[in-house]
Every structure is written in C-alpha cells, then in structure tokens.
C-alpha cells in the first residue's frame, strides 16, 4: 500500500494544478477592461433621445457580435438640458470625476463650441454626430471629431436648385446662434457666384416668442422676394412654419427651402407640423435604404417605444444613424489602443489658486485614441465611415418635397453630376454637371399652383408699380406728358411708353403699374435725367421709363434692362452744295491714279500694235517720226474709236478687242460721273471733324438734361461754347444761323434723336462720323430687382418681332427714302483705279503674251542669225535690220490673183504709181519684163514723153522689189507710156 502513495500524491497534485489553470482561464475569459466614455445630450428633446437610444443599441449589438474584444465601453450619461453651460458642466464633471476617455456629443453646435476647449485641454476626443456648424472648423482643434457633415457641404445642392428654377434673389431665415451663423458666409458667397442676391437676412432668436416670429414674418411678407431658405432646428422651425401658414405665407407664389438641419428631422415632427409645411423643398444627406438599415429601424422603433413610450417619433433620422456609427467607431478605436493605462495624469496646480478648469487631468491614452479614431474605417449604417480632416464627407444629397403626411424624394444632387433624377442612372464616365429642372420630379408647391413660382411678387402693401417718366418740351415722339387740369389727371404717350407697354404685356404674369411724371403741372421738369434716375435709388419710384440712356455713373444707383434702341452719340451738321464751277471739272470724274494708268496703257497698247503690225502692214511703216506719230495717233484715237489704220495681224486683233472693251467701259463711266457732277447737287457736310470744332472755337449744341453735356466736357470742349436746345425746331434754328450768328456749327445728341431730326430735315443736315459708343435707351429698376431679367427677356422678344416695327412706324413714319437720298448725295462721284485694275490686268497680260509670241516666231524664223558665229552686237543689229524690213511672205504683199503657195515668186511691175508712197494697191497686168533688171519702155520701142518745146521728159520709173528665195532683191524699173 505504501508503494501506491507516491503515485496517488502525484495524481492529486496534477489534479489541483489543472483545476487552478481551468479556473484561471475561465476567469480570464469572462473578464474585460471597462473604459469610461461620456455622453452629453439634450435628453428632453427627440434629437437627444434618438441619439442616446442609437448609441446604447450600437454598443449592445457591437459587443454581441465582437465578444472577443477585451475592452468594453461604459457609458456615463449626462443631460445638458439644452443649455451651453449645462453641456460644459456635464463635460467637466465627466472628465474630472468619471475620467472618461472620450465624449459622445454634444447635440448642438453652440454646446460643442465650448466643449472643444475642454477636450483639447484634457486630450479627450469630443465626438459629435449633430454639431454641423462650419464655424467649428475654424477652431482647428485636433480633438474635435465631427462624425457628421459640415453644413457647408449642402450649399452647392441648394445653389443648384436656384439655377434649375432661375430664381434671382432669396431671403435667408436662420437661428441666432453658432449653428445659424456658420452657414451664412458660405451660402452668401455661393449664391452671389450664380448671380442670386440675398435681399434680406432674417435672424430669429432660439427663444423667440410666437408674436416675435409673427412680426418678423410680416416684414418678409411686405417684401418682393418669395424664396426663403430656412436654416434652424426644431422646435423653432416647426413654430416658424406654423405661424407662416397662419398668416398666409404658405400659399401660391411662395417657395420654402429647408437645409438638412430641419429636413433630417421631418420624421420627428407631428402631423400638425407637417401639415403646415406642405409644398416645402428640402435637402438632406442621402443614406441608401439597405437591408441593414431597414432591420435597424425595426429594432430601434421597438426599443425606442419601450424607453420613451410618450415620444411619438416613428423612426430614427440621419443623426441617429451617425450616432450609431460614431459609437461603433469609438469601440473599434479603443480596442485598437489595447489594454493600456486608461488613467488621467493629475494637474500639479496649487490648491489655493486652482479652479475646476485648472485641476483637469490629462488622459494618458488621448493621443493614441485620437490617431486610432482617425484611422478607423468600416461600413456603417449611414454608409462608409471614415474621417477626413476631422469630419465625414457626403457623396450625395437628396432633394425632398413635403407632401401629405411626410416627405417624397424628387431628385438627387452629387458633386460630379449635379442634379439627377435617380442615382441608379448616374454615368460614372460622364463629367457633365447638370442644373436642369427636367431632372427633378414633379413638385407640389405651396398653395398647389400649376406653375413654377417666379420667386418674387409685387409687395402686398402696394397696388401698382410707380413708374417715373421724364417731362420735356421737345422730341415728344419719345415721351409726351399731357396734364388735364379739369380732371387732375395726366396722360403719358410716346414711343418709349408704347415699347414699355408691349414689354409688360409680353410677361408671363400680370404687373399693374402707373406712370408718374417727374415734373409739375405747368410742364416744367423737376430735374434732369440723372435726378430722375436717382429717384429710383431713393425708392420714390419703382422704375423709370422713357428715353433714358444706360450710362456708367447711373448704373451705380439702378439696374438697367437690355436696351431697346441702338446706341451711340453722333454729331449733326449742316450740309452745303459743293458743286464745283471750276474749268478743270472735267478731270474730277477720275482719280489721278486712274488718269495716269489710263494714259500709260494708251501708249503701251499703241506700242504693242506697232510691234505686231510693223513688218506686215504698210500703215505702220515709214520714217521713224512717222511711225512714232502713228503709235500715239492710233492708241489715243481708239478712245473715240476714230482710228483709220487697218489691223491685219490676228494677235493684234485679239489685243484690240480686249482694249476696245476696256475703253468702252472707261469712257461710259467717265461720262456718267461727269454728268452727275455737272447736274446733281453735291451735298457735303460743313464740318467733318470734331477737332475742327475745337480748333476754330465753333459753338456746339446739346439737348437740355441730357448726359451729353458730361460727354462734351470729357471731350475737352470749352463750356462757354455750349448752347442748349429743347426741341427739333430749336435745333434747326440754331444750325441754320450758324456759329457766327448766334447759332451753332454742330450739335451732339443720341442717334435716336438724330434720326428723327434728319427724317424731318434730310435735305439740310446730316450725321457725321464717328459715332461714340453708348448703350442706348433702357428701362431702369432698383438694384437687385427681380424684374430686370424678366423684363430684359421681354425686351428681346418685342424688339425681334413685328410689333417693334409697327411702333416705330406709328411714331416716326417712313424715313428710309429720305435717308437714302441724303446718303447718296453725300457719296463721292470720283472713280478710282480700284474699279478697273482687273480690266487693266487682263489687257496687260494679253498684250505681253502677244509680244512674247511674235518675238518667239521672229527669232525662230531667223534662227540662222541667232545661232550664227557673229558677235552679240552684230546679231542684234542684223535682227533689228531684219525686223525693220517688210515680211513679203505675208499675204498683204501678194497680188490679188496670185495664190499663196508658201514660196516667194517674182512680182510684176506696177504701171501706175500710187499717190501714197507706201500704197501698192493699184497694179496693171500688161507690163512686159526684160531680164532681171528692169529697163525703160523706150528701150523696147516705146515713146517717151516730150514737152511742148520738143524736149523729152524723163520717164517715171517706179521700182518694185522682188524677193528671191535666197533673200536677194531685184530692182525692176518700169516705164510709163502715154
């Protein structure tokens, strides 16, 4: 038995060790490291309750699926009671007394603004899922993590809605705290970038009473703008819409746009609140409705109703999803830090001088936990969770419309594609950014109108627009004011008035208005046009209609529509008959360059014809002086087609045909121009240059009250030389007198006035260039008026149609014929080379080509000389001699009955000598020949002539040159018998 005791002792020892190890492993498996985490929320409102329930659900479900984690977050909850001080006190208590390693919350941006400093001092991360104000980013605290979106990210989506519906102004209504103030600069800059003006900023206190809200809404109702952007949370937002619906601001013509702060909370509002917000648009971050989200909503609703049975909230909002993801992210980050020392290092500050803030300890794992949070990535309920620059980033916003019992999605906005109907239709390869309203679904607007609200209306406290019109003595065709003393009424007519009436009638909506003359009943104006424009700036008039010109200095006080007349300032001067009585008038029809060119071509054509005809035509032969005279005589006689010389060369005939055509055109044009000069009035302006007016000190005129006065001063005219006129009649009288007789030498005015004046006096006055650029007549409205874009588009529709032509004919009549006659009389009658250089070019090329052909044929015929061994000078002399000789092979030197055989035959003698030495047209065939050398007829038995005294007269023996094939000549004398 004793032998077994050692074995039994060993067995018992092993059993005890195994039992101890098993118990230790079991204890180790069940033990976790608790990590304190603070929660600071407003637990008496729905947003705080939703966030609290989502955080507790997140940790419960997260650790249920991650049982292997060694750390566990222990929530230390504090109620901030919707106060900034309450939130700060709660955070301070959590850090000092609970030594929390992180704080989830707070629920609002003003609260977060104070907590950020505490977190920075204690190195405790502050993780907020609902503090969205952009102003928090300016604090640049690395320990503030925004597990939500910055409010500024929704601004591009809001501006895209404005672009889609072409609204041009808006009113911003926001809560008076850090949350409300944060979005203002971003929204203002973005709207200004698309030419939308914030006409008013309505700031409402978070604790404003219903009466204060109603009073502010009445102020907004009195304004023209009907597009309102609301940026606030509930319950202030729901109270605002309840009062707006009560006073009638949720009817037709109104547009309300909610930022995501209120849009995300629509599901938490009561049916009564939703009913007062019918037709409102809103934007909110888009969260895909995945199976996980749907399952979470079901679980959350069951738990929320158990925890808060009196709260009627039906489903969690986006802030609840962010709270869920933020709690999960914190749990993951703490686990990644590991089982470190979760303690605080106490401050060494003396107790005697310390405060609660001075005694705050510093978390030992704060920096590591912060880095772990920033690197945490996972797929959460709200989408991909990842912190960039201390906050989340959204990829899409949803546009919703409040209809019936809730909201309905009508579109989406993404940074890359802009407004789109459905996210599933996004082309990932497309870079097209759209702001088309066609991509937005059907919207039910407040009051359920069948049209898109234009975004503005006439103020309800005014019945009609007050339209100021100028009062003037002359040029009543543009604006005329007639006072009826009996009825104390005024009648306003004129071209500008009819144009404005047509423009307002073409608007898609009705605008009541009335004309108010800027003058007194006796017909005197209360000021000039600048004074009239300034009345709009002073809000005494809602617009100005008349012959008002767009000028730079006026645009500082009003906004002009597009002009409805042509622009510019021109000078008008008298015209005079400049018909010359000079003896040299016959030279004026052609310019000097055309005269010189014509003379040169006359000589050139004569030379060409002489070259082509010299060797084959007796008319172009003879002594050198005779030939030179023939050249000039022939060429200039073609001017009247009086040439007598025959042309036998085909090349010369081609040249002459073209030349005759040129001469015909030239002479006919000269005749027509000279006739016009001698018979038609030559009306020319008396002054053609503005510098001439200044240099000679002439008096000039301008219309009273016109901006032209300032223009003339800028042109450095002497103000003592200015004279004023009020009507076309006064202007005509001043111009007719002239500068030296109490009148003016020229007048400066706008083109519409000048055209009207010229149409009445087209035979006496004319406009002279240059025209100085101005922007024409337009209608003036207050700066930022929403009517300007609509009226400008209407101006284009009217001016491009037939209605504008009818209005012009009604007030100005038909003035085109008078203007055309005036312009034609002022045109120059001189004919320049520009009109004929083409004809001269053709003639010159034809002539040169003919010369080249003749020269080539001549050199080819005498190629034996060209290729001979003589010197160059000898060759030139020989060729010149040959050129000067007759070409007996040409048909003009053959007998009429002798056929052309291409060879050289001896020619018979000529019995009768022609009176013209060069003429051999008269010949006889009964002439005997004796040998090669001709002899007299007496040698063949003929008789010679004798004188009455018996003396014999020498016989007249003309000679005929006969050419042989070897180019030798035989002189054959002939005798004349009687």
Describe the structure.
There is one protein chain. By secondary structure, the chain is α/β, with parallel strands linked by helices. 39% of the residues lie in helices and 16% in strands. The chain has 28 helices and 32 strands. The strands form nine sheets. It has an eight-stranded mixed β-sheet, with helices on both faces. Strands 24, 25, 26, 27, 28 and 29 form a six-stranded mixed β-sheet that branches. It has a five-stranded parallel β-sheet with strand order 2-1-3-4-5, with helices on both faces. Strand 3, helix 4 and strand 4 (126-128) form a beta-alpha-beta unit. Helix 12 (318-337) crosses helix 13. The protein is elongated and about 145 Å long.
> What share of residues is helical?
25-40%
Structural class given helices, strands, pairing? alpha/beta
Dominant shape? elongated
Strand order of the largest sheet: 7-6-8-9-10-15-16-17
Q: Return Rg in Å.
A: 55 Å
Mean pLDDT: 80
Uncertain residue segments = 1-29, 819-827, 900-978
Main sheet: strands, sense, barrel:
8 strands, mixed
SS strand fraction: 15-25%
Number of strands: 32
Report the span from N to C terminus. 204 Å
How many helices in DSSP terms?
28
């Amino acid at each position: 038995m004793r032998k077994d005791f050692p074995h039994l002792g060993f067995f018992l020892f092993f059993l005890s060790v195994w039992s101890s190890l098993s118990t230790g492993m079991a204890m180790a498996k069940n033990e976790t490291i608790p990590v304190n985490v603070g929660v600071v929320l407003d637990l008496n409102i729905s947003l705080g309750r939703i966030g609290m329930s989502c955080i507790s659900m997140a940790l419960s479900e997260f650790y249920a699926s991650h049982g292997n984690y060694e750390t566990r977050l222990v929530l230390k909850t504090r109620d901030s009671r919707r106060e900034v001080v309450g939130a700060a006190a709660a955070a301070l208590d959590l850090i000092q007394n609970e030594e929390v390693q992180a704080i989830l919350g707070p629920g609002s941006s003003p609260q977060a603004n104070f907590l950020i400093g505490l977190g920075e001092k204690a190195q405790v991360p502050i993780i907020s899922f609902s503090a969205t104000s952009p102003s928090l980013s300016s604090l640049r605290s690395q320990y503030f993590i925004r597990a939500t979106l910055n409010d500024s990210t929704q601004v591009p989506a809001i501006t895209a809605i404005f672009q889609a519906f072409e609204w041009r102004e808006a009113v911003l209504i926001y809560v008076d705290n850090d949350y409300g103030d944060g979005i203002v600069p971003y929204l203002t800059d973005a709207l200004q970038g698309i030419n939308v003006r914030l006409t008013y900023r309505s700031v409402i206190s978070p604790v404003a009473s219903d009466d204060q809200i109603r009073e502010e809404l009445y102020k907004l109702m009195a304004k023209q703008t009907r597009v309102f952007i609301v940026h606030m949370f509930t319950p202030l937002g729901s109270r605002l819409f309840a009062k707006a619906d009560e006073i009638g601001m949720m009817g037709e013509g109104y547009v309300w746009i909610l930022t995501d702060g209120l849009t995300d909370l629509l599901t938490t509002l009561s049916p009564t609140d939703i009913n007062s917000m019918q037709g409102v648009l809103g934007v909110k971050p888009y969260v895909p409705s995945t199976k996980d989200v749907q399952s979470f909503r079901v679980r959350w609703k069951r738990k929320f109703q158990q925890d808060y049975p009196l709260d009627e909230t039906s489903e969690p909002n986006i802030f609840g999803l962010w709270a869920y993801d933020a709690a999960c992210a914190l749990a993951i980050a703490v686990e990644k830090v590991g089982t470190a020392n979760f303690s605080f290092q106490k401050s060494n500050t003396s107790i005697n001088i310390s405060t609660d803030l001075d005694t705050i300890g510093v978390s030992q794992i704060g920096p590591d936990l912060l880095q772990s949070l920033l690197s945490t990535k996972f797929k959460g309920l709200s989408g991909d969770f990842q912190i960039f620059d201390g906050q989340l980033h959204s990829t899409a916003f949803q546009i919703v419309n409040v209809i019936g019992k809730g909201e309905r999605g009508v579109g989406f906005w993404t940074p890359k594609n802009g407004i789109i109907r459905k996210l599933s239709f996004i082309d990932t390869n497309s870079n097209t950014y759209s702001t088309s309203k066609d991509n937005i679904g059907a919207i039910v607007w407040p009051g359920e109108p069948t049209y898109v609200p234009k975004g503005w209306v006439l103020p309800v406290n005014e019945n009609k627009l007050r339209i100021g019109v100028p009062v003037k003595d002359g040029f009543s065709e543009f604006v005329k004011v007639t006072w009826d003393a009996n009825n104390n009424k005024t009648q306003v007519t004129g071209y500008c008035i009819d144009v404005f009436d047509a423009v307002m009638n073409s608007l898609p909506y009705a605008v009541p208005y009335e004309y108010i003359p800027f003058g007194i009943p006796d017909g005197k104006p209360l000021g000039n046009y600048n004074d009239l424009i300034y009345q709009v700036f002073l809000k005494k008039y809602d617009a100005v209609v008349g012959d008002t010109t767009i000028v730079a200095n006026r645009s500082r006080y009003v906004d002009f529509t597009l002009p409805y007349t042509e622009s510019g300032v021109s000078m008008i001067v008298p015209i005079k008959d400049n018909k010359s009585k000079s003896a040299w008038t016959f030279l004026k029809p052609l310019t000097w360059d055309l005269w010189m060119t014509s003379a040169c071509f006359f000589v050139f054509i004569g030379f060409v014809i002489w070259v082509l005809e010299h060797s084959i035509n007796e008319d172009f032969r003879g002594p050198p002086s005779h030939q030179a005279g023939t050249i000039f005589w022939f060429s200039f006689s073609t001017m009247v087609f009086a040439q007598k010389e025959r042309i036998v060369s085909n090349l010369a005939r081609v040249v002459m045909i073209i030349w005759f055509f040129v001469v015909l055109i030239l002479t006919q044009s000269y005749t027509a121009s000279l006739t016009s000069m001698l018979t038609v009035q030559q009306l020319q302006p008396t002054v053609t240059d503005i510098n001439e007016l200044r240099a000679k000190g002439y008096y000039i005129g301008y219309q009273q009250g016109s901006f032209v006065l300032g223009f003339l001063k800028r042109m450095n005219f002497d103000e003592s030389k200015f004279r004023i006129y009020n009507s076309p009649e006064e202007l005509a009288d001043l111009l007719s007198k002239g500068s030296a007789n109490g009148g003016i030498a020229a007048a400066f005015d706008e083109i519409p006035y000048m055209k009207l004046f010229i149409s009445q006096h087209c035979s006496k006055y004319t406009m002279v260039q240059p025209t100085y650029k101005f922007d024409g007549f337009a209608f003036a409205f207050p700066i930022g008026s929403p009517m300007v874009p609509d009226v400008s588009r209407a101006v284009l529709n009217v001016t491009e149609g037939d209605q504008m032509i009818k209005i012009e004919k009604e007030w100005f009549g038909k003035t085109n014929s008078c203007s055309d006659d005036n312009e034609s009389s002022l045109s120059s009658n001189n004919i320049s080379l520009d009109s004929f250089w083409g004809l001269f070019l053709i003639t010159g090329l034809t002539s040169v080509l003919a010369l080249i052909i003749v020269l080539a044929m001549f050199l080819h015929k005498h190629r034996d000389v060209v290729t001979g061994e003589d010197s160059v000078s000898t060759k030139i002399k020989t060729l010149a001699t040959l050129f000067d000789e007759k070409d007996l092979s040409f048909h003009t030197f053959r007998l009429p009955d002798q056929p052309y055989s291409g060879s050289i035959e001896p020619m018979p003698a000529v019995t009768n000598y022609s009176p013209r030495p060069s003429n051999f047209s008269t010949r006889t065939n009964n002439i005997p020949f004796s040998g090669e050398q001709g002899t007299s007829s007496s040698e063949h038995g003929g008789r010679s002539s004798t004188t009455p005294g018996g003396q014999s007269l020498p016989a007249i023996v003309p000679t005929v040159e006969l050419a042989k094939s070897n180019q030798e000549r035989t002189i054959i004398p002939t005798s004349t018998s009687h």
